[in-house]
Amino acid sequence: MAPAPAPPRALSAELRRATLGSLALPAPRPGARVRAARPREVNFHTHRLLMSSNMNSRSLVCPPCNCAQMALADTRIAYQPDVDKHAGVLAYELVQGNLVQWNSFMDKSIPDPPTAVLLHGILGSRKNWGSFAKRLAHEFPMWQFLLVDLRCHGDSASIKKRGPHTVASTALDVLKLVVQLRLTPRVLVGHSFGGKVALSMVEQAAKPLARPVRVWVLDATPGKVRAGGDGEDHPAELIEFLRRMPAQVSSKVEVVNALVKEQFSVDVARWVATNLRRSSPLGQQSSSNFSWTFDLNGISKMYKSYEDTNL
Fold it and tell me: AB hydrolase-1 domain location, by residue (predicted)?
């Protein structure tokens, strides 16, 4: 299978050409458990991180949703089969280093391992972080990395969420998932929209986040967002154009051509097309048509909140 096209810097969480050391994850103390100690202390870094997409991997199957996933030979992806994602829990993957011997079913007295949460940007999905998370798990085998599909995105799009669709409500979703999985994240990494979600998580929660928690915000600022300048594909315009397109299309090429015709870059067009999957009408195995993996109406409101939110 040919690798997916590289996503545009302004929209995607799958960033390029990173060195693993740039996150500088602290080494865990053997047997230590992180607890909420200080009411508010955040090591806040605004940083532009670039990463590559190495797909030297093998395929695993996710028990809850039977979707094919990828994992390095010495890195495993853990799933929580008792979590009903259709009961309001976000879709997620837990990528663990090969020295992690833990899951949420264990006795609560057993400390959870050091955990980092990776949050994608608008119109993205948890898969944007996949290859990078596996590289991190390979480099830091005592750590685990939680990848989340935010509300209205990816496999979480089928989970009906109450409004308002805002940065704050999206952050609360992730906090609820962290509580259900019995995790105490030490690091939050968010790209663009996901960066503000990470900051909002810290603003809202005394627990279950460790204090201090390290927050990495990539390609975003805490304040209000200025519309894209010349030569940039402004996400708001892209979202509105996608909302005007048919709910189902005959091919990914059709979407790419339509976006390029509207003066969006080829890179953006190809990246957006990766969010299409074959439709599966009730009673049929598959369809020749494609539909979006996200809720564009909800995403439009989320991006407006992203523009207006000042943290």
Answer: 117-251
